[in-house]
Amino acid sequence: MAAKPSSKVIITCAVTGAVHTPSMSEYLPLTPDQIVQNAVDAANAGAAIVHLHARDPNDGRPTADPAVFDMIVPRIREQTDAVLNITSGGSTRMTLEERLAYPLKLRPEMCSLNMGSMNFSIHPAAQKIKEWKYAWEKPYIEGMEDLIFRNTFKDIKHILKVLGEEAGTRFEFECYDLGHLYNLAHFVDAGLIKGPLFIQMIFGILGGMGADPENLTLMRTTADRLFGRENYQFSVLGAGRHQMPLVTMGAIMGGHVRVGLEDSLYLESGKLAASCADQVQKIRRILDELSLTTATPDEARALLDLKGSAHITL
Predict the structure, then answer these.
(1) pLDDT digits (tens, 9 = 90+) for 134-178
(2) Which residues form the signal peptide (predicted)?
(3) DSSP letters along 266-300, please?
(4) C-alpha distances in angstroms, 41 versus 28, 113, 294, 310?
(5) Residue 5 near residue 39, CB atoms below 8 Å
């Protein structure tokens, strides 16, 4: 199925993630209540998709526990019609079985899917923090230097089968490097992925592509060659201080945008974002100034050929 031409920009909000830790920002959502409130407020501010991880309510460490997700996801669905995009990546410390436990239970409209194994680290950030709120944080951040995020071809094939083929879930294909586009093309050519594709191009993570505008152009033109421009939608994620400039560039190039405290803790230079909604509101103002219209959740569903919220198992 070809991608539908889009005159509307989908805003995805990644609420909390599994990279940042409580000591990095007092505003990072940690408890179920905080994650729910941030997600709902982001949706009310204009996010058509909310991308969700879970945190241990006691100390904020990343968790894949379905019981914790159950304290978050149903409450968001009760309060908003935003597309619920559940992580299949979790964190570098989780097994594939742990990462898939809740997605297989929920059978969501959308999941993230990292398109390769990679070094993925923010360990230099540990040097900037003088006081840690929880004992787990410092070894967690420093330990990233000697860890990889694993998603082998076999892992990806398994996820495509049990979530895609069997559960009707579609994917935000996370591409942190040029080679990830070729990995995606491999699965498309093998008939294991059907369009329309939703490619999340990610820049600025240590271990992946640098946040250079030229790299965004390279990813866009490479995706055109591999898939044909009419066969995919793309979105841009800029990590940290690169968030707003790169996602704005992506929107100008015809793409969609992703913001949220998972990707950047800041609203502007030197100023922490007090909520995910702050970032959504900022990018929406920028899009408005560029005469670009944001997509509603149902418009996002139509563009990405999602199965609809009525077909998830809550």
Answers:
(1) 999 999 999 999 999 999 999 999 999 999 999 999 999 999 999
(2) none
(3) EEETTEE-SSHHHHHHHHHHHHHHTT-EEPPHHHH
(4) 14, 25, 16, 22
(5) no
Report pLDDT for 6: 59
Strand partners, 13: 50, 259
- Whole-angstrom distance, CA of residue 295 vs CA of residue 292: 10
Cα separation, 236 vs 213, whole angstroms: 11
Identify the burial level of 169 via C-beta atoms within 10 angstroms of its C-beta, where 0-12 means exposed, 13-18 middle and 19 or more buried. Answer: buried
Give 258's strand partners: 12
- The torsion angles phi and psi of 175, rounded to 5 degrees, stand at -115, 105
Residue type, 294: T
Q: Measured between alpha carbons, how far is 100 from 86 in angstroms, rounded to an integer?
A: 10
pLDDT in tens, 67-85: 999 999 999 999 999 999 9
pLDDT digits (tens, 9 = 90+) for 186-235: 999 999 999 999 999 999 999 999 999 999 999 999 999 999 999 999 99
Q: Residue 82: what pLDDT? A: 98
Where along the chain do its domains lie? Answer: 8-311
If we measure between CA atoms, which residue out of 144, 61, 66 comes closest to residue 103? Answer: 66
Q: What architecture (CATH level 2) is domain 8-311?
A: Alpha-Beta Barrel (3.20)
